[in-house]
Amino acid sequence: MSPQFHSYPAPAKLNLLLHIVGKRADGYHLLETVFRFIDYSDTVELAVRDDGQIVLLNPIDGVPPEQDLTVRAARLLQQASGCSLGATIRLTKRIPMGGGLGGGSSDAATVLLALNRLWQTNFSREKLMELGLSLGADLPVFIFGKNALATGIGEKLNEIKLKPAWYVVIHPGVHVPTAKIFQNFAGRVLTEEGTISIMRILETTQQRRNELQQVVSEMYPAVNEVLSELKKYGSPLMTGSGACVFLECQSEEEADKVYQAMSVKYKGFVAKGLNSHPLLDIE
Q1: What does the pLDDT read at residue 1?
Q2: Does the annotation place 103 within a ligand binding site?
Q3: Using one digit for the tens of pLDDT, what is the confidence trace for 232-253?
Q4: Which residues participate in catalysis according to the annotation?
Q5: 234 is annotated as contributing to ligand binding
Q6: Which H helix or E strand runs over 265?
Q7: Which residue, 125, 159, 193, sits at the end of a domain?
């Protein structure tokens, strides 16, 4: 009998700003960033198994299944809960890898949220966020499920209300390794702005900054080129540690127009900003 798969979305995120506000003794940088979910997703399909095995049907080229974040997330939930069930995982990737869109973290978060339900392990969101943090700093926000102002290494989250917006997202065609960017960050450490100041900064796109953008632009000219091209239409920003660059637009029509002009030369997409994660109400 063929397994019964359940399908779940794993949305991308954008960092609407990113400030570096300190460094921990273990080398991790302390951040202040705003996460926004967008309507552009990978699809995670899951089928429950009785034999306790975790099987990834379509491993990503160059990533051994045991290292894949979705497999690691499923094993982590198994170990933490003592659950004897297993899962078959099938991934349909749309979110570019190494783009600063959080695709791998989002996939893993969706696995934790969905298997918590399918296996009936009944962990709280807080507990799942704790598990997620051990896999990656930007994983908890996908379990938190709401657009958020994040501090710490990205794991201290406060819900933030954001205006409706559309985004033109362009991939410069380079893969940017996060660790390398943070190692090369030699910029000054800023003071934390705090919620009120952040809300003021978010009112216009001109004031927003990603402190890693300069490092990436210098190391990867392709990123700098896309930023320069998008500047013709507004105030673009790089998301996360790159490589993707985005422009916030007021309407779908405006975003489509900009994307049409950019798509002659670059790959990318247009996506609507979401108010919350599509699995916010999963229980």
Answers
A1: 64
A2: yes
A3: 999 999 999 989 999 999 999 9
A4: 13, 138
A5: no
A6: none
A7: 159
